[in-house]
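Fold this complex.
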Amino acid sequence: MTTQTASTQSEVVRAARRARTAAAELAVLTRAQKDQALHALADALVAEAPRIVAANAEDVARARENGTSEGIVDRLTLTDARIANIADALRDMTALPDPVGEVVRGSTLPNGLELRQVRVPLGVVGIIYEARPNVTVDAAGLCLKSGNAALLRGSSSAKASNTALVDVMRKALSGTAVPMDAVQLVPGDTHDSVKELMQARGLVDVIIPRGGASLIESVVTGSTVPVIETGVGNCHVYVDADADVDLAVELLIDSKAQRYSVCNSAETVLVHKDIADAFVPKALKALKQAGVKVHGDERIVSYSISGSDNNGDGGDVDGDIVAATEDNGDVVAATDDDFRTEYLSLDIAAAMVDSLDAAVKHIREYSSAHTESIITKSQAAARAFTSKVDAAAVVVNASTRFTDGGEFGFGAEIGISTQKLHARGPMGLPELTSTKYIVIGDGQTKARNSNL
Amino acid sequence: MTTQTASTQSEVVRAARRARTAAAELAVLTRAQKDQALHALADALVAEAPRIVAANAEDVARARENGTSEGIVDRLTLTDARIANIADALRDMTALPDPVGEVVRGSTLPNGLELRQVRVPLGVVGIIYEARPNVTVDAAGLCLKSGNAALLRGSSSAKASNTALVDVMRKALSGTAVPMDAVQLVPGDTHDSVKELMQARGLVDVIIPRGGASLIESVVTGSTVPVIETGVGNCHVYVDADADVDLAVELLIDSKAQRYSVCNSAETVLVHKDIADAFVPKALKALKQAGVKVHGDERIVSYSISGSDNNGDGGDVDGDIVAATEDNGDVVAATDDDFRTEYLSLDIAAAMVDSLDAAVKHIREYSSAHTESIITKSQAAARAFTSKVDAAAVVVNASTRFTDGGEFGFGAEIGISTQKLHARGPMGLPELTSTKYIVIGDGQTKARNSNL
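Structure:
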């Protein structure tokens, strides 16, 4: 066991060292050289599609043997058409500007020093991800375009696919200016090798986990290499007192149900008490029609079971609306856990709030700070919400589902950061870079030329 | 002991929770409100100077009793004049633009969504620092100006001073829009309380250690809160084949000896073999005059002990220069450790290299990636060096000593980041912020209005 571990360790460290050497070469390549390599990767993947599909068939067969759900089997499966799409995504990256070398700011200091802050690659990027083998190629391509070496660690369920994909890419690189070791699978398939990767501080510059909350949590807590957290989305839709009810229902349904298994789908709806009578019955009906189960607080639940004075604030209740209780859908009582849960399913938590500030407070307490939205006609409410809510994206009068590198026009994304350091929100190519200051002088010394 | 720990833990967590609440209030204050608070802090520090000086006298007396060196006692000491300077630094911060609210980028998407990426405070910033009590005020001021709550953890040697400073600042805040709990000392003075701070992920947004290499290392490895590494500088001066020898000597002396106890002073000089005969004897003489002890590799050492063919490459040697061996200063043989050491003293490591690429390779192996400089008349060499060397600052034909927020014109700095994520190089106010995307729509749904 000790020997096993030691040998796994040194293999991972050796791979990281090779990546580091490759990164130094890759960092100084031109955009033309990198784009040419991306085309070479795309062409090779298409040419070698039969071999990749055959390898993938092993993973798919093993997944079926293990009783994996068809949804996950589908995400694991590669076909000629899917490989063509993956290759096209690489070709699309060639159209994106090279972030490396961009001058972020610059000035000439009073002493004549010329100062430029310039984007440079991060260096070696470790990516730890779950089932989908397309991530193997996407991540390699984004790293390559941004001048970074990629150390890829997919799940063991996609091992044959990932091995074939990386093998094809590495061979394709041999005919380009990009060193082969700029794209590597992390060797070994034990948990020790992941641990080794997460502890390779000084060799690996950043680790980006892509997957579910538990994967991300284990990387965040186990890594001494800096981590960029991605993708856990406990997103809220807040329906303000002054909202258009029909629009609010439409935006809620789109946010929750247009696609529910993604991080930017809504998991909780908060309703201002003054609009509850008008909004909640319609919303419950629409949610029921969309197949969504509602986990409501006491005041929300009251709309599905009682005929009068449902919002508990003693106000008048519109009998016509409340009369529609049989259509009010499937509402169960929510626990505190429901408000903390990223369902990724056709479930939604729902609560009534007494004010915009109460909604902000609820969001501050429960949100994963991914995407938070308000639906309102009030300029003052929109301004207060966007100013007070701290999240990667704060949305007014639109679906939460737009928080995405593609929708935001960034071309491609490596993930959606839900942390505050380095990058927040959809991460495109610039977020895969660092900067350095280049200072050009003609003999300035501190003794003679200090600006201070 | 267990009880003690438990109570310390909850005290730190309670302080962090109060900071979090304060941060939410502080985040939405205007620049005018924050600047007014900075003035209030400055005025209070000056008004309460006698009390602060008295508290400081306790720390100074204890330091002397413990046999602390006079250099450190001097850094610890506060006087009326020094307090006035500290207060002026706060007033100077009011002249700096507020980073919060700055629109970093923005666009209108094809579907009409208006997208803005806006700077927001990080939230709660933990600062762990060593002796100098002026950091207590500087850090609090920079955090306040950038909308962040500060959790300050100074060294126990400055405890009385820091307690008095924070008490004065908190009282001054009570008359302003900034909540008192935006500035707090971390309670408790055991190592457990530091550990507790470093583990307060989710409550504390970032920890910035300021101090020596061992402090920084312990924070980096012990923290689950994201850390910004600062300030370890193993900086190099590379004298290219094509350098002006007299300028190279002047820049080397300024880089090493203008002030040697700071992170941007040079710790190693690398000399191209083709300029060694002309440069090394002059450099050794100048270093000796500046009181600098040289730790040289074999080829550098040969200049201080032999009279001919010193550079070992069989070339001609200028007898006049080499004849000056008695003036060639104090050169001892360097070990590998010397090249890894941030001396912060009147010592320098020196090595001869066969090419610019060899210099780049040496720097890649040994540097802390703080500040690296080349002295050359060659445009090609300057371009190759600035492109291939990856460091926070890469300098051409100037002293290394300019890597500093003040010199770069950033007004104030919280430290110099030597990591690649989030911030690199001198960190001013913008580096104490994150961003969020604000997305304004008029009813866009993914179902109807996707850009993809």
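Chain A touches chain B through 72 residues (CB under 8 Å).
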